Amino acid sequence: MDKASDNLDKKNPPEKILEELENARRDLEVREDNLRKTISLIGYAVVYGDGDGLVTGMNEIARVLTEVHEGEEIGKSLSQLFTFYTLPSREALNDPFAEVKENGLVVSSNEDTLLVNREGREYHVEYSAAPNSYSGDEVTGMVIVLKDNTELHLHHEQMGQVQKMDVVGQLAGGIAHDFNNMLGGILGAAELLKKRVTGDDKALEYSDIIINATGRAAELTQELVSFATKQRSSSTFLDMHRIIEEGVKILKGTADPRVEIVLELNSPDSIVGGNQSQLQNIIMNIGTNAFHSMPAGGRFVIETSRFSADEDFCHKCPHSLKPGEYLRMDFSDTGCGIPPHLIKKIFEPFFTTKDKMKSSGLGLAAVYGIVKQHGGCIDVESTVARGSKFSVVLPLEEGQESAGMGSSDLIHGKGMVMVVDDEFVMRMTAKNILEELGYTVTLVENGRDAVNLFRAYGSNFDAVILDMVMPIMDGQECFEELIQIDPSVKVLLSTGLTGGDVIEEMKKKGLKGFISKPYLSYELSHRVYKIINE
To answer: Are the beta carbons of 281 and 240 closer than 8 angstroms?
Structure first.
């Protein structure tokens, strides 16, 4: 052994070399352990493969996404664990590891990629696959990193649905305004005609047909109106438990006797602000759909509970909820369920899976609009062949007492009433009804003329019935000027479109009441008598 070799052996004895190798091995293990921990915490799914594109391991997030137990993935190709599809065409994509093996380059997707795991569950993802080890120029290892965008995609989809319904609402509101005025004239004239028909049963029958058909048309129009505004409708305080019970009584008359109806009204508080007819429509529409889904019988359960919405929940909700206390209503059935691809369509107007001659397709769309208009939100869960659950939340009105359901008897009275409406048919309808009840009526066709008349002869009028949507000067502007002339003026607002926040603000300034078009004679008689005599 030469002198140089002897000096090297003395400087680095075998024991020292082994110690350094052991320290290097331990350091490498620590680094690998830290890397594994980091990968498990980054929030992305990570899958490793060898040079042939066969899986060698994955982190815990990838196991949750793919529903693969530890060790099951070893030696399998990606396509044996999950498949990628492009959206919206749903065309199958190539195995990313196979592409990396072939080209030796990074392969990535856009955000419109669907991952379907071997259990059939779907996730919206982005991915990037790349080689991560080489032997010379040959790829000996690769990795794919997946970002789960499912929750974000669902949120965007819900927001898109809300925006779509807003557009539909604007269109529906314009149609409903004119349609309500026409229905108001038909309904009022039919009621007045019926009073003059005596001793002719057929004529009475025909009058009832007109009144009932107009009433159904008015309900359909009200369903359209539900899309017309994001604001809550002008409302009274109502016991939702009582409305549910009344709705179920009606439903039982049409339900298959093999359907068991169960009420679990457990919420300690059930007073909400709203329109009685609209809120009952929620019960009727969801209940009717549930019965249709159970042609051989089943179980329909309505359960209520108190629900607290915090800032975080409201921020994530696409329905613009405000933090506070809500009444939650769960409507569950054991019916046929709703296929996943139809879930996002069920609240769209005119969409229906029923015979077009049996359904307008406005049922659930109307429910959506009513719930939204009342400051709440609606969601649905469904499994094919097992049933559906619709969950509705409405803001609670704590410390308030429920208004009564009301009587349908006419109330006669005395006094002079100004009727302000740009539609001739509505002016004449209101005039004829009020004169039958004993009132003296003056008709005006726009807000500006009403202000001028009231300024000159305001002391002669006991009440003003004021339309909201008019040319020249609308109802709100007219009301503002009337209260400037006489702060004690008694104004009853009459409109086919509810603008909840606007009306509530008008109430604070002295608006005495509100009546929705088209109205029945007894409704008008109650409202006018109340504001004149209160």
So the answer is: no
- Work out the end-to-end distance of the chain between its first and last CA atoms, rounded to an integer number of angstroms: 122
Domain 232-405 CATH assignment equals 3.30.565.10: yes
Q: What is the 3-state secondary structure (H, E, C) of 276-336?
A: HHHHHHHHHHHHHHHHHCCCCCEEEEEEEEEEEECHHHHHHCCCCCCCEEEEEEEEEECCC
Q: Going by DSSP bridges, is the β-strand pair 107-108/122-135 parallel, antiparallel, or unpaired?
A: antiparallel
- Phi, psi (deg, nearest 5) at residue 411: -120, 120
Radius of gyration of the chain (CA): 34
- Whether the predicted pLDDT of 84 surpasses 70: yes
| Chain segment 150-197, per-residue pLDDT in tens | 887 777 766 666 666 666 666 666 677 677 778 888 888 888 888 888
Kindly give, in sequence order, each residue whose CB lies less than 8 Å from that of residue 141, ignoring residues fewer than 6 positions away.
48, 49, 50, 51, 56, 131, 132, 133
- Pick one of 3.30.450.20, 2.40.50.140, 3.30.1050.10, 3.40.225.10 as the CATH number of 42-148: 3.30.450.20
- Dig out the tokens for 215 from the structure: 């009433």
DSSP state of 54: B
**Number of residues assigned to the chain:** 534
Amino acid at 371: V
Token readout for 264 is 């679990």
